[in-house]
Amino acid sequence: MEKTKVKSNKRKSIHEPKMNNPNIEKNDDKPDLLSTSLASNGSLVSSYNEYDLDTSDEEDLRNTIGNVPLKWYDDYEHIGYDLDGEKISKPANSKRNDELDEFLEKMENPDYWRTVRDSQTGGKIILSDEDIEIIKRLTSSKFANKNVEEFDTSTFFTHDEMKMPLSGRPEHKRSFIPSNWERLRVGKYVHAIKMGWIKPAIKKPEDSEEKFYDIWADENDADKRKHLHHLPAPKCPLPDHYESYNPPPEYLFDDEEKEKWEKQEPEDRRINFIPKKYPSLRLVPGYGNFIKEKFERCLDMYLAPRQRKMRVQVDPQDLLPKLPKPRDLQPFPNTLAITFKGHKSTITSISVHQSGQWILSSSNDKTVKCWEVSTGRCIYTWTFETKCVNCAWIPVQNLCLFSVVFENIVMIVNPKCGDKVISSNTDAKVAEYFVQFEQSNQSKSVDGNESDDESSEKKNTDTRKPPCTWKFFHEKKNDPNYKQGFRIQLIHQKNLKNVSWHPKGDYFATVLDDKNSNSSVIMHQLSKQKSVRPFAKMNGIVQQVVFHPFKPILFVATQRYVKVYDLVKQILVKKLLTNVQWVSSLDVHPAGDNLIIGSYDNRLSWFDLDLSTKPYKTLKHHKKAIRSVAYHKKYPLFASCSDDGTAIVSHGMVYDDLMQNALIVPLKILRGHEITKNIGVTCCKFHPTQPWLFTCGADKTIRLYSN
Amino acid sequence: MNGNMENSDHSQLMVKFFTKNTKYSIADNPYSIPASSTIQNLNALIIGILKSDDNELETDFSTIEFDFYINGQYLSSTLDDLIQTISDIKVESVIEIEYAERNAAPQPIDSIILDDWVSSIKGLNDLILVGCYDNSVQIWNTSGNQLVLLPGHTGPVKSVAWLNESQVMSSSHDQSILIWHLAPKNKLIKTQKCVGHAESVECLDISEDRSKFVSGSWDKMIKLWNLLDESELEENSVSKKKKSDVPTQIKTPLITLSGHGENVSGCRWMDEKNVCTCSWDHTIRLWDMFSGQESQCLKSVNKIYVTIDYSRVNGLISAGCNDSLVRIYDPRSTEGNLVKISLTSHTGWVSSVCWSKKDQNLLVTGSYDNTAKLWDIRNPKTSMYDMVGHEDKVLCVDWTWENLIVSGAADNTFKMYQA
């Protein structure tokens, strides 16, 4: 036992350089590294933890005998030679027992079953519990390390897109062939060793190395870390073009700039010298401010409080609001389905019939056309004297009428399309109005002793001029206008902009194209054949008026504001500040609490009447003036169309819950209209029941975008 | 036989060929062919086998081409590609490939220019019934002669149908359906006017036994009318037509069915009892006409149905939608809501569909993208043949028993093809 060199000592010589003489035979084993136990037969069996010691398997192979059976050394004291050519002694426990000893050990040693012989050294090793565990796992075809999950594919298959995906390409053949280069290299080494050019490393006597005492060893980590906190000095800006001795001409000052530079205070100057051009670097004089600037820089660095800027790592995507994807917000109009062709000039407005079967369009070619939606077929055409500005269906099912605006006239027309019963009922109703109108007219003319009762014109006896005169076409006179479907004509004093109908179909409001008049809004009542000016005074140019879908409220869009009037109390309820230069159009959500405006300065603003008088959201997606905006009656959609030739459909969900604000998501840019004379799309309207959008434009077409 | 096929280093497949047409049947031998074979390779193979069998060289094989199907799926690119899409085929086993003679391309016969848009078209024998947007119904023959012109509607004609060679029907925007009775020399004897709809009548279809017909309208209603019961007809005393001495009779519907929420855009008899209708309210509904009840409702996702047709050969419903798809449903399946096949290659609303009367796999469609297409439903990705030539929206197509395909369009023409 004494004469055998313990294998583990050699290990120590590798791992513990402080040990003085590793080759001296030792039998007192360090308990922390080696836990040796005396076997019953007296042989020393080491059961150290192999994995604490070696860093790789190569460490063991310091025996240079090569790949020969160990039994050739059975008769020797040593088992081979180390790197320096010294003999390696056999471990103490490597002695082979005879059969009897073997049997006795088998009977008496409880660790016999876990004792194995090291094929490298011939020593016995008692396997630890972990080793046995590993062997068990390996024999049952599992991973050696129990921390490895066997079928964990999560690291291989992730939802993340990889820039360099794993390839299933088989390994190249050359990776299996021994490297020729390596062979040559090894050959060189072998030759060098043979020739004696490479000598074994000369061991340094380790004693010679002086030892120092680390005085900071017990200083705590916190103090150390404090000093490690390095703050870099602020960097000088890099030289710019104007600092060159030969700057590009645009950096040189002209007289104006020079004068300006000279006038400025030295602190305000962007550049602290005048750029100047020299023909060669040799001619550049010394820089006068050099010392001063360097001194200032030193002062800056000395005095400036160094502060580490905490940069927040923010993904720009996170700053964007979380909006649902457009494809989750189906249905919405997204493809051009039908083009309605037939007009000869810019189409000014369109209006879709309640049923969704017909669409009406008014155009600058002095016509109004009625189209069949499903095929794009023009069914009727009415011709008027001048350019038609606006057309609108009456928004009720039981009447078949629409209004056309041209010059200063509103014409109410019965198109005789759709249900014939409704059409004839409408005619009957208009005739009834006519009778009423005649009677009231006569009574008035009797009162006022007026003589011109021959015509069916009506003059208010008010002191003020009447806002407009009514004229009925009727069947009896065999009027050609009646045959065309014309029923009522309202002649105003000024040219008109548009007409908007009350949802119940009895009232309608007209807007005069008049910059000076205080009363450019006129309200008409069909059943009483009366016209009134609802507002005594109105600041700003009125652009459009819209009735609330079910409350007696009128929305008036002026150039800068949207005014909300209560028609019953006759008061101004609210004044919405649009923050735009010029409002072009207005539409009210079918629920009545939200409205959108489009403006000539490219902006679309959404107002929540419950929220504030300022826009809840402003969308600036159009590149040119917005001409028209519209809400869908059934689907949570709204659209805007613009002079840039596009219409934009957006999702605008309004919740019943008062705590939740509307959700606005732009969905789709619909293109197709050509820009003619700088005018793109003039009007957009939704289909009443389908998620479809109609647009009309200066390119003389109406387009239907369907889902 | 095919040197280039054997040289290719791709994997080989064991295949067997079979056909339903005994004229072209070949011996039931398995062949080993490369997986990368295309339809041309297979054609060459089959024709080569046929030629070697046909000793007397009776038939000329130069013009014959075959289409190939595996499990009813059309072979469009290579065998390999198709087999990968079919799950229950094992590459190791012998694959059975069906081949059938390719349908010849429809041959254009004539194109006839009318005065106005052609809204509806129906063929019978060598006669073609045309409904026109100028309020007229016209009968033409295949040689391009106008036989009859029937003015009488006061609105554009939306739908037409043949009752027999001397009786035709038409429905119009003027909310009525007219039944025209013609004498042998195409002289109008009398008309029957069916009133009841409150909006334009968009579609009509006559039952197989010619005893009743059904109509659908923009007023959301479907009406069933009787054709046989003459006693119900009453003389129209109120008729104001002074110049025409043709008697007009008024007819009223048997039943009115409500259920659709929007325009009823198409209706079709499926058998003696059942009718399928499609509507703009995104549904196809099946109706039992004996009880007057709705029996089934197939919903789509936000797409309107523009047209519908039912094939008596294969029992499938095909419907044209506004998203340029033709959706094919199987009304017999329990999960009827599921689209069986979607035919995708139109780029506009599909305005009309018509199944072949004889072949269970063929149908023709017309679309607002100015084309009519002939489809084999085993190949839903692309059509077999595109019939281009119309310069505006194709509004109607029809495929008669005599394999005459007619299509009418908004360019004022209708075209005839021999399929």
UniProtKB/TrEMBL annotation, chain A:
UniProt-listed Gene3D superfamilies: YVTN repeat-like/Quinoprotein amine dehydrogenase
Biological role stated in the UniProt entry: Required for maturation of ribosomal RNAs and formation of the large ribosomal subunit. Component of the PeBoW complex, which is required for maturation of 28S and 5.8S ribosomal RNAs and formation of the 60S ribosome.
Domain of life: Eukaryota
Protein known as: Ribosome biogenesis protein BOP1 homolog
Record-linked InterPro entries: BOP1/Erb1, BOP1_N_dom, WD40/YVTN_repeat-like_dom_sf, WD40_repeat_dom_sf, WD40_rpt
tRNA processing found in the keyword field: no
GO biological process: maturation of 5.8S rRNA from tricistronic rRNA transcript (SSU-rRNA, 5.8S rRNA, LSU-rRNA); maturation of LSU-rRNA from tricistronic rRNA transcript (SSU-rRNA, 5.8S rRNA, LSU-rRNA)
Composition-biased stretches (Basic and acidic residues): 456-465
Record has Repeat as a keyword: yes
Basic residues bias (residue ranges): 1-13
SMART domains membership: BOP1NT, WD40
Location(s) in or outside the cell: Nucleus, Nucleolus; Nucleus, Nucleoplasm
SUPFAM superfamilies registered for this protein in UniProt: WD40 repeat-like
Lineage, opening ranks: Eukaryota, Metazoa, Spiralia, Gnathifera, Rotifera
Similarity remark: Belongs to the WD repeat BOP1/ERB1 family.
MF terms (GO), sorted A to Z: ribonucleoprotein complex binding
UniProt keyword annotations, A-Z: Nucleus, Repeat, Ribosome biogenesis, rRNA processing, WD repeat
Gene Ontology CC annotation, any one: preribosome, large subunit precursor
Domain BOP1 N-terminal: 73-333
Automatic annotation (TrEMBL), chain B:
Main location: nucleus
Ranges for domain NLE: 14-83
Domain of life (superkingdom): Eukaryota
Keyword Transferase: no
Residues in WD repeats: 150-190, 194-235, 257-297, 343-385, 387-419
UniProt keywords, alphabetically: Nucleus, Repeat, Ribosome biogenesis, rRNA processing, WD repeat
GO cellular component, one term: nucleoplasm
Locations listed in the record: Nucleus, Nucleolus; Nucleus, Nucleoplasm
Residue ranges crossing the lipid bilayer per the database entry: none
InterPro entries given in the database record: NLE, WD40/YVTN_repeat-like_dom_sf, WD40_PAC1, WD40_repeat_CS, WD40_repeat_dom_sf, WD40_rpt, WDR12/Ytm1
One Gene Ontology biological process: maturation of LSU-rRNA from tricistronic rRNA transcript (SSU-rRNA, 5.8S rRNA, LSU-rRNA)
Molecular function per GO: ribonucleoprotein complex binding
Keyword RNA-binding: no
Role noted for this protein: Required for maturation of ribosomal RNAs and formation of the large ribosomal subunit.
HAMAP family associated with the record: WDR12
Entry's family note: Belongs to the WD repeat WDR12/YTM1 family.
Record's protein name: Ribosome biogenesis protein WDR12 homolog
Lineage: Eukaryota, Metazoa, Spiralia, Gnathifera, Rotifera
